[in-house]
Amino acid sequence: MGGNNSSPCASCKLLRRRCSQDCIFAPYFPSNDLRKFVIVHKVFGCSNISKMLKDLPVHQRADAVSSLVYEANARVRNPVYGCVGIISYLESQVSELQTQLAVAQAEIRSLRM
């Protein structure tokens, strides 16, 4: 079941399937972390996740799962913009902080004169 584990992976547990030795989800969604699969499944669906993972080389799958989990969490918080909303917010913060830094640097220069 799910590789070397005696319990099914989170995907097979949630979907109430038998977890085979070659289950594509088992290495990335362990049975003790059901929430991770639940949120990714809710946003992307099992079939799409499976297709994405199968289309990737094995060495890239763990990173892809991390990205899917991050995007799924972002989509749950902000269904319209997801990660793009977070990036836009952070970009605006960076811009604001750069402006504040420029003002502070100008004040320091004026005090030195």
What would you say this structure looks like, in words?
The protein has 113 residues and is an all-alpha fold. It has helices at residues 10-15, 34-44, 46-54, 58-77, 82-112. Helix 2 (34-44) crosses helix 4 (58-77). The protein starts with 9 loop residues before the first helix and ends with a helix. The mean pLDDT is 92.
Give the helix/strand layout.
Layout: H1 10-15, H2 34-44, H3 46-54, H4 58-77, H5 82-112
Features:
113 residues; mainly alpha
Mean pLDDT: 92
Order of helices and strands: HHHHH
Task: Quickly count the helices.
Answer: 5
Q: Roughly how many Å apart are the termini? A: 73 Å
**Radius of gyration, CA atoms, in whole angstroms:** 22 Å
Shape, principal axes of CA atoms: elongated
List low-confidence stretches. none
In which range does the helix fraction lie? 55-70%
Number of strands: 0
As a percent range, the share of strand residues is under 5%
Structural class by helix and strand composition: mainly alpha
Could you describe the largest sheet, including whether it forms a barrel? none
